[in-house]
Structure formats: structure tokens, C-alpha cells
User: Which sequence fits this backbone?
């Protein structure tokens, strides 16, 4: 686990550090969604490391989703539960603070659609689906593209919804 974190930090600094430039210039939302779509723990760890130094409004929600995604990829049941719980707390806290954020509803829908039944995290699927459709036009182009891409393989969202 320590090796993965070192690797993630190395990736972060080798990718983002320039000659005298700021460590994290802009958050790359399309890259975030690409990492979220992968099943690669190292890339998720690297994205979490980048987020840890970011100062963006959505930071807690993004961290939460990545932690819940990571929970599905690690082998040890105790780690799965720990990552999922901490991620769920972060995402739900973000949603409580800003329940009108359509992107947060999309992030929650992604996790709920793939969460195992045992964690009982699927109660808001339909609510989120309707809210995403309602707010779609007001979302950023990167989020719109992520929703369209996701809808092609989702059982809840459909491309014709947008």
C-alpha cells in the first residue's frame, strides 16, 4: 500500500510540476471521469493525491466517489468497507451542502448503479436519474460528455434521455 501511495505521489509531481509553475494549475474534469471509469487502483490513488492538494469546490464529492470506486477494486473486505464508508460520507456531505448540484447526483448515480446490494446504497437511483435529466442543460460541457458516455452503458440512464 505504501508503494502505491509513493507511486501515486511520484505520478502527481512528475506530471504536474513544471519549471517554477504551480503544482496543480487546473483540475482536469475529463481526466477525472476517465480515471473514474477505469478499474485501476494506481490511477485512482494518483487522482486522489492530486485532489488532496486541489482547492476546488467539488473536492470532497470527487474524493468520495473515487474512494467508493476504489472500494470495489481492493481485495481485503475490511479495506472495501472502510473506503466505501468514508467515500459515502464525503459524497453525501457534499450533496447535503449543495443538493442542487446535478453533477453530484450523477456521481452518486454512478456509484449506486454498481454498488453491491449488501451496502444498501441504491435508494436514490430514480431521484438522481430525474434530477440529472432536469439539470443536464445547465451542466458544464465536460460533465455533459461524461453523462452521455456513461449513458451508453448504463441501465438507468439512456442516451435518448439527453
Assistant:
Amino acid at each position: 500500500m505504501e508503494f502505491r501511495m509513493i507511486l501515486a505521489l511520484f505520478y502527481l509531481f512528475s506530471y504536474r510540476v513544471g519549471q517554477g509553475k504551480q503544482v496543480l494549475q487546473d483540475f482536469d474534469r475529463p481526466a477525472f471521469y476517465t480515471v473514474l471509469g477505469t478499474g485501476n487502483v494506481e490511477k485512482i490513488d494518483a487522482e486522489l493525491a492530486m485532489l488532496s492538494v486541489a482547492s476546488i469546490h467539488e473536492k470532497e464529492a470527487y474524493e468520495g466517489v473515487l474512494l467508493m470506486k476504489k472500494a470495489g477494486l481492493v481485495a481485503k473486505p475490511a479495506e472495501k468497507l472502510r473506503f466505501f464508508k468514508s467515500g459515502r460520507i464525503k459524497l453525501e456531505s457534499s450533496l447535503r451542502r449543495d443538493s442542487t448540484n446535478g453533477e453530484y447526483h450523477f456521481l452518486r448515480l454512478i456509484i449506486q448503479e454498481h454498488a453491491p446490494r449488501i451496502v444498501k446504497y441504491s435508494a436514490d437511483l430514480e431521484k438522481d436519474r430525474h434530477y440529472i435529466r432536469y439539470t443536464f442543460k445547465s451542466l458544464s460541457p465536460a460533465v455533459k460528455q461524461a453523462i452521455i458516455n456513461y449513458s451508453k452503458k448504463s441501465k438507468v440512464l439512456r442516451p435518448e434521455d439527453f
Notes: Confidence is low (pLDDT under 50) at residues 5-25. The radius of gyration is 16 Å. The chain has eight helices and no strands.
